[in-house]
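Researcher: Please predict.
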Amino acid sequence: MHAIHPAPPEALVPTAVVVWDRTSVFLSVALAANLVSTPLKAYLCESFPWQANAPPPILSTNASWAVKEAFLLSLTADRYNDSVFTGDANYYEDVLASTVVYRRLLTRPISPITNCAFDVATHVNGGLFLSLRTQSALCGFAASIDSPMLRSCFETRTMGTVDRYGCLWSARRHGSDSNATLWLYSAFQLNASHDFLIGKLVFRIVLTLYMARRVWVEYYAHYAVLRTQCARLPHAATCKIYIGDPTSIFLLHPVVCLCLAIDMWLSVNVVANQVVAVLQLESLSAFLFGYFYLSRCVWLCYACMACTSVVLKRCHWEHVFPPMDPTLVAVVATALVGPLTYLQGNSMCIQAYAWVLNVSASSPNATEGAYAVLLYTCSIGALPLVHGALQYALCRRRYGAQRGLINYASHQYNDVKSLVVLALPFRSLGRVPHTCGGSLYHVFDQFPGLKRSPCISQRGTDCFVLVLNCAKHPLELRRLSLLYHGLDRTRAAQAPNVVATKGPVIFGHVELQTSCASSRGTRIVLLESSLFPSPWIE
């Protein structure tokens, strides 16, 4: 005798065929791979540990600076000359020696010299980083045509550790006896042990693997239950899923952002070399590689935004900072980091950096870069914060007037990158009779305190489900958001006007209702959960 069981609810019976939009899948995975590989992309400009020789042992001994300087000049001034520079070339890189060399023509005398850091140092590649003794030697050399040839070296330190050596020397042009117009060479040699380079590589590999795991666990793994939910949508013959962009999920993690910022400053000597490359325009290839490397400074912006989000949440100031589009932040930071660096190194700002680099130096033959790193980090990291503050101050009235006109369910209510990504698959879609979803953003506009990240927009992570009938005609378009990445559950649990309840629906949603329990008509947030343990809500 067979047992008779009750039929499952209609919503639990699979009726729809679920397909994936291949274009959105490809673009989403490509964007995720670009993000996950961020730590390892540094090696497009850096050398792997096995590509460079170890620093000369004499540099790590207690030998006097005079001995070390003579040795450094023998490595640089006696090696890098017309024999390695062809024609009027002005850039040379020695990968094995971890050394980059620049040269430019300098005509003496330079007069009047009222400010050595500005009047003379701006004529030298890397003049931003000179020690006091080398500055003095350079200015004495440039002040008179009768001054002897320049030969001077210095060491750059960060928190007391020598990370780079620099040397300046002059030489006559090939076939010329003139002392008026000379080649002025500047060489910078990295100082990092193999053990440190290997440790940095291991750190980057571990960070890459961690980011890959997080992007799977916190984003792509949720599409399995979404597929199950879509298959059970009533009145749907086919459901087509358009996958979103997981990039902004990582921007919610201050630890990840800080690790990527720390990863950048673990190579502070490489950053300094790339700053030198950006401060000159004679070698276009060096300039472009330096510009590309310094684009990693966008993580300084993201780290500042992540930390600012924590401060805003703690102080309950979420309403004073509009969420920034992470793509626009990346574009603006990448576009401005080069010109901003060039401006700082070729204007009166060089005097500020010269003072900062030498004010706490251990000797006139060295510089200390800790304060300069802090100054550069703040100048770059503050860009999105200044933009957000100005945007709030200038646009809050207009934004408040237009708030009620926003269609939160539309795919056009999105970040710039997601708009471009969705434009390809949605171009031939045509008109959809009905759209729904985006309830989180309606609530966030009314109660900014419920946003998990006040500074960074999370709209790009949303996916879209297109519901088709048997004739393959679109019936509706559903916008789905990840509840856990958007809503601050801690704040929701503490807020007295947030009520959680369950309902027999496929997808949960958040809505604003009028409370019947209060004579003042308090608006509450009703958080409905679906029949499935799913983080997706519409």
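Model: The chain has a mean pLDDT of 83.
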